[in-house]
């Protein structure tokens, strides 16, 4: 297994322990200039001979290059039959219980060369701090429409597994490799990944800031408009990311309803097997209610803006209609702010959020609409 990691001290030890217990023979890890103790944890495993530890402190989006070299070394230096390119917040498992990764990979036909593994995002109640393996015990199976409604673009993309090859290339994100697939494992040998990307506000906000600044430091690298990390980075800069973080997590009522409809599924394999190194610190319930309300408004506004941008070229009437909708949303934000400001305990923080939202998001959105209308309104 290859692993490029930065500032994941809250989860890196259980992640490594899990995969070693699953029969992964060797983990080649590159620490990307961590400052939170991650490197020291990795050094402990390296001293025991269970991890080959490398260092690359450059903070640019060079994951594809670094992982490619580790994957090539896995074959040329360590004789790997199969290579799994993982992230620190991923736990790889056989889909069927009672077996290990070593069991299934010893039976998978190497003639298929490479195949994709489904990545399942895990969710549950939010927290200020904490690893959250006993809290995030629900597979997030919401539809794309349901994801969009809470400000998310889509679920995580599948990961690529490949046979050991000294000439392999791994694409940024570990989702594609240069080795063409010749098939897929049979159902009884399928692999899946349980993904824990939003373990706490402390971890998530730091990850977003690290990732966004790495993109800004990478000249010539332009993220796609739907890049989830950069959207969250802009939210962090706007002061609205905490509201978005809370809103994307289901409430207890939403979890109950989602379990009945199939939007969520209980998943305790990791929770029951691994202890979380960092204890959870719950969010403030009253403040959480206020922030979630902002998150809902923000998500609605962003959805309107995305629709507007996708149809500006030849949809003048739609542009004008969305302009009216954004005006209504702006009024709703002002009304909501006035209501929330009546709560003395939350008023100062709410005003800060409103100012950030109004000055950066709404004004920007209205300016976009005004420009669009001036370009596309029919001349009389």
UniProtKB/TrEMBL annotation:
Species name: Cryobacterium breve
Pfam families to which the protein is assigned, alphabetical: Glyco_tranf_2_4
Origin organism lineage: Bacteria, Bacillati, Actinomycetota, Actinomycetes, Micrococcales
Name of the protein in question: Glycosyltransferase family 2 protein
């Amino acid at each position: 297994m290859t692993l490029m990691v930065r500032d994941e001290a809250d989860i890196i030890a259980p992640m490594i322990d899990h995969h070693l217990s699953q029969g992964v023979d060797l983990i080649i890890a590159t620490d990307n200039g961590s400052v939170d103790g991650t490197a020291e944890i990795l050094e402990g495993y390296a001293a025991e001979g269970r991890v080959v530890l490398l260092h690359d402190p450059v903070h640019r989006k060079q994951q594809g290059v670094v992982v490619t070299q580790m994957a090539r070394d896995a074959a040329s230096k360590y004789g790997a039959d199969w290579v799994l390119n993982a992230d620190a917040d991923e736990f790889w498992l056989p889909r069927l219980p009672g077996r290990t990764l070593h069991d299934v990979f010893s039976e998978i036909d190497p003639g298929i060369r490479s195949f994709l593994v489904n990545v399942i995002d895990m969710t549950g109640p939010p927290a200020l701090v904490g690893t959250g393996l006993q809290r995030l015990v629900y597979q997030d199976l919401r539809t794309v429409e349901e994801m969009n409604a809470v400000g998310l673009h889509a679920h995580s993309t599948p990961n690529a597994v490949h046979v050991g090859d000294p000439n392999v290339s791994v694409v940024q994100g570990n989702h594609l490799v240069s080795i063409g697939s010749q098939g897929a494992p049979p159902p009884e040998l399928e692999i899946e990944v349980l993904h824990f990307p939003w373990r706490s506000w402390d971890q998530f906000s730091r990850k977003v800031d690290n990732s966004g600044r790495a993109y800004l430091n990478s000249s010539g690298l332009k993220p796609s408009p739907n890049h989830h990390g950069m959207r969250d980075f802009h939210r962090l800069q706007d002061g609205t990311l905490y509201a978005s973080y809370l809103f994307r997590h289901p409430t207890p009522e939403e979890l109950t309803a989602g379990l009945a409809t199939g939007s969520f599924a209980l998943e305790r394999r990791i929770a029951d097997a691994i202890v979380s190194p960092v204890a959870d610190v719950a969010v403030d319930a009253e403040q959480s209610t206020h922030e979630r309300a902002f998150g809902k408004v923000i998500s609605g506004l962003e959805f309107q803006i995305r629709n507007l941008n996708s149809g500006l070229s030849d949809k003048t009437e739609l542009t004008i209609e969305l302009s009216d909708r954004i005006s209504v949303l702006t009024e709703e934000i002002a009304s909501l702010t006035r209501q929330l400001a009546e709560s003395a305990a939350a008023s100062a923080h709410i005003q800060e959020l409103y100012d950030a939202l109004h000055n950066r998001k709404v004004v920007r959105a209205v300016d976009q609409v005004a420009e669009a209308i001036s370009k596309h309104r029919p001349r009389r």
